[in-house]
Every structure is written in structure tokens, then in C-alpha cells.
Amino acid sequence: MESILRLLRMTDQDGHGACRIITAVTNRAASAAADLLSSGDYAIAFPSSSILYHGIRRFEQDPLTLESTASLASLLRFGNDYYAMELARKTADRFSFMYVWTRPEFAAVRANAADANLSDLDCFVIAMKEKLSDKAKAVWEKAAARNKMYESLFSTLLRRVKRKIDSATKAEIEADAIRAIVSFELQRNKHNPNWRFSTVGIGQVAEDFFILQEYMNSYDSDHLRTWCKLWGRWLLGQRRVEEIEALPDDEQKQQAFVDDSRPLLQPIWSFFVALCHALQEGENEFTPTDAYWFGLVDEVMGRSDMAPVRSVAEYRDDPPAAG
């Protein structure tokens, strides 16, 4: 799949830019084919198709040993993390469009929940969940649980770490993170007398460490900055947008949109990263509409009620009435 994608994106001998890739699933796209579908610059799903995502697989002919099993587990983890972030890179703009498109529903979500203090992320999770099939809802809930783990671990780390991050080595930062995780797991399991580090605990510490690394690596990513620049004008109030537009140069304007939009978009980006990792776990078979709401495709053929990005790009004002 990666080889096919590289060939499609190659320039020609005259140095012309790569062609725009349009991908489509008419019947079924599974595993690498599903990833190739989402890799398109514009991805289309036919209404009767199905799309299957899962983590990487490895088949071994030789008997497994303790050493080879440990190496294989590390390889599979690295592979799943790599493909999760590759999926995030490929589908980030689609997912952010889903968030911006869904925001007008947040007032109704707060009203239905009788809770005016629901965060934008809470409203987004609730609003989107209502649009999904049962199988997709399970993945959505898994992503939400993973994201809450991100937040809990990160807040624990911030409370316990006293050293200045800028003056610490990466190993020292990781050591602080491990100490914070140990405290986190002790607190979380304090009412379970059978819980031990020597049994399931040490494995949970390792899992927590990798989850925290996911969060920290994505916390200030270039993709998040791109979201802020792309959607800042839509998310900020008209008065603030006018103030930013009045700044003297473009660089200041872009930075202002990033600074003001980041608090709104960072929780959504974190959830998105959690979702991409959740797609690497288990067998996740989706309907075309599920794939659309997850940002895995741009359009479901024939579904005019699900606005594709194309409808925005191709929008033109109606011509003035004659006479």
C-alpha cells in the first residue's frame, strides 16, 4: 500500500507536481485498502460500501521465545503508533471540518443535558455519538476514555513535576513522568487490596507511559497550529477577528489566530489523536456514514444531507435576479 501511494505521489520526469489523488470505495475497503482510501486528497464512499480498520499484523513461522515475543510486542506497538499518527496526518483536515460543522449544535446539546457548563469537547462527543452506528459508537467511546486518560495523566504530571522543563534532559522528563504515573496508579487502585505492581501494575505503568507520550507529542504539534490558522476566523468572535486583521503584518496575524484558537482546538486535537489510536485496536468495521463522521472520507455518494468539503469549496453565490 505504501509503495502504491508513493508511486501515485511521484512527480514526472519534467518535475511537474504530483497529481491530485481521488480515492473511492464501491464495495469494501479493508486493512491496507482502508488506509489507502483515507490517504486520498479526496475520498469518496459509495452508500452500500463497508470500511474496516485495525492495527498491524505479523505472522511468525518460527516458535516464539521470551526474547522474540518482547521484540515483537515492541515492534507492533511502534507500528500501531506510527500508523495512528500517519492516519491523523492524512485525515486531520477532514476531522477538524466535522468539528466546525457540528459546533452550531452545541447550544442544543447543552440545553438537552440541562448543563450550560459542558465544554465544547463534551458537546462535540455527545453530538457526534448520536450520528454513529453501534459499532462506531464503541470506538468513539473508547477514544473518549483514552482521551480522559490523557488528561488525568497529564494533570498528575503537572502537579508533581517541579523542575523546569526547558532545563531538563529528555530522560529526566521521562523519569518525572514515570514517577507521576506510579503515584497515579497507586491512587487509582488504593481501594483494591489485590492490586500489585508485580502482577498487572507494572504493565499498566508501561501502558500509561506510552499514552502520556502520545499526548505530549501531540500537545503542540504542527497540525494543531494548522487547525488554528485554518479555523480561527470561524471560531473567534467577529470583534476579535477584526482586531487580529488590524495587526500590522501577516506573521502577527497568524500567531494571534494560533494563540486565541489553541485553547478551543487543543482538546479536540487530543481527542482526535486518541481516536486514531483507538482505530488501531480490534476490528473496526464502519458504514460509509461512520467513515464520514470520523473524517476518514470526504463524501458519501448521493448523501446531500451530509455536506462534503466539496460543497464549501465549490460554493458560489446565486446570480442576481433578472429584471
Task: Characterize the structure shown.
- By secondary structure, this protein is mainly alpha-helical.
- It has a domain at 1-54 and 284-308: 2-enoyl-CoA Hydratase, Chain A, domain 1 (Alpha-Beta Complex).
- Helices cover 62% and strands 6% of the residues.
- It has a three-stranded parallel beta sheet with strand order 1-3-6.
- The model has no long low-confidence stretch (mean pLDDT 84).
CATH superfamily of the domain at 1-54 and 284-308: 2-enoyl-CoA Hydratase, Chain A, domain 1
Instruction: Give the CA-based shape.
Output: globular
Mean pLDDT: 84
Q: Approximately what portion of the residues adopt beta-strand conformation?
A: 5-15%
Report helical residue fraction.
55-70%
What is the CATH C level class of the domain at 1-54 and 284-308, in words?
A: Alpha Beta
What is the end-to-end distance? Answer: 57 Å
How many DSSP H or I helices?
A: 13
Q: How are the strands of the largest sheet arranged?
A: 1-3-6
The description of the largest β-sheet is: 3 strands, parallel
Spell out the blueprint of helices and strands.
Blueprint: H1 2-8, E1 22-25, E2 28-30, H2 32-39, E3 42-45, E4 50-53, H3 66-102, H4 106-113, H5 120-129, H6 134-160, H7 170-188, H8 197-218, H9 222-235, H10 238-245, H11 250-278, E5 284-286, H12 288-293, E6 299-300, H13 309-313
Parallel strand pairs: 1-3, 2-4, 3-6
Antiparallel strand pairs: 4-5
Helix pairs in contact: 3-9, 3-11, 4-5, 6-7, 6-8, 6-11, 7-8, 9-11
Based on the model shown, name its key terms:
single chain, 323 residues, mainly alpha, 2-enoyl-CoA Hydratase, Chain A, domain 1, three-stranded parallel sheet, three-stranded mixed sheet, 13 helices, 62% helix
